[in-house]
Amino acid sequence: MVPVAPETWDRLGVSRESLTRLELLIEVFLRWQAHMNLVAPSTVADIWNRHILDSAQMLPLLPPGLKAIADLGSGGGFPALVLAAIQPARLHMFEANGKKAAFLQDALRQMKVEGVVHRERLIQRAAPHNMPEVQLVTARAFAPLDQLLGFAEPFFRAGATGLFHKGQDVDAELTRAAKSWKISAKKHSSATDSQAVLLEVKEIAHVDR
């Protein structure tokens, strides 16, 4: 595995203590990855860049006063576990797959990160009282933007910001989503993939037909 250059962590303000937690996350992740595909096997050899740094690059974009994060379709735990290893925040991780949920619970326990794994399927436009109070919603390789906004809408309605990893088709996804949503969003270039972006979403509103 190729580690990230120390100056990169210095630039992001990541402490030695946080790096130790990230190393523990990788240990737990690799044990589970050996028995199930949490991420594509081809990306594991470069886990520090493809998954850890890809998640940590969100740090400068985190909203002020961050106390809790909702991570949708958590899967292998990226970006939520990485963010919580560096920036203390309570995690609400939504993952319907039982084996992946078990991994997430194990990682939370071993990393001593405060959080809950919600083993349930997300429902678009769910009632806000069913959702935990969070300041940030994240998702990585989970769903097309128009569907993702439907899952995240209750959190936005309560004032949360969204940070979503998106690939080279982000403009097409934005165009398609605009048919159903009014969106206030900004694209930030990815530090790990020249064709990817971090999509920062501040506000959304459903377009009623």
Question: What would you note in describing this structure?
Answer:
This protein is α/β, with parallel strands linked by helices. It is 37% helix and 21% strand. The protein has helices at 6-12, 16-33, 47-56, 80-86, 98-111, 145-157, 170-177, and strands spanning 68-72, 90-94, 115-118, 136-140, 161-166, 181-189, 197-206. The protein has a seven-stranded mixed sheet.
Topology of helices and strands:
Elements: H1 6-12, H2 16-33, H3 47-56, E1 68-72, H4 80-86, E2 90-94, H5 98-111, E3 115-118, E4 136-140, H6 145-157, E5 161-166, H7 170-177, E6 181-189, E7 197-206
Parallel strand pairs: 1-2, 1-4, 2-3, 4-5
Antiparallel strand pairs: 5-7, 6-7
Helix pairs in contact: 2-4, 2-5, 6-7
Largest sheet, strands/sense/barrel: 7 strands, mixed
The secondary structure category is alpha/beta
| Overall residue-averaged pLDDT value | 91
Question: Helix count, per DSSP?
Answer: 7
The CATH class name reads Alpha Beta
Note the beta-strand portion.
15-25%
- Report how far the terminal alpha carbons are from each other: 51 Å
Which value, in Å, is the CA radius of gyration? 16 Å
Structural domains: how many: 1
By CATH, the architecture is named 3-Layer(aba) Sandwich
> What is the count of β-strands?
7
Strand and helix order: HHHEHEHEEHEHEE
Low-confidence stretches: none
Instruction: Determine the CATH superfamily.
Output: Vaccinia Virus protein VP39
